[in-house]
Amino acid sequence: MSNALTEKVQKAIAEIRPNLQADGGDIELVGVEDGTVKVKLKGACAGCPMSTMTVKWGVENYLRKKIPEVSKVETV
Fold first, then answer.
1. How far apart are CA 13 and CA 5, in angstroms?
2. Rounded to a whole number, what is the largest CA-CA distance in the chain?
3. Is the pTM of this model over 0.85?
């Protein structure tokens, strides 16, 4: 796992975190491996039926545009 890539991902997640917190949720970076970012949703996001779309259309799109090394985002 690249420390530089992990740091980039942590900074990008910190940028989107306030949006999730505004809806009563949160996101935690679990790890980055071979371009796959693993995250854990917390709070209201953890049980939300829209969480899959939030991760794919929101988090994944944002991270892929900001950090080209990111290929996908998975929840764990």
1. 12
2. 33
3. yes
**Tens-digit pLDDT profile for the chain (76 aa)?**
468 999 999 999 999 999 999 989 999 999 999 999 999 999 999 888 889 899 999 999 999 999 999 999 999 9
List of domains in the chain? 3-75 (3.30.300.130)
Tokens of 30: 């679990």
Are 27 and 20 in contact, with CB atoms under 8 Å apart? yes
Q: Which of 57, 62, 59, 22 is nearest to 43 (CA)?
A: 22
Q: CB count, 10 Å around CB of 30?
A: 13
- Strands of the 36-43 sheet, one edge to the other: 25-33, 36-43, 72-75
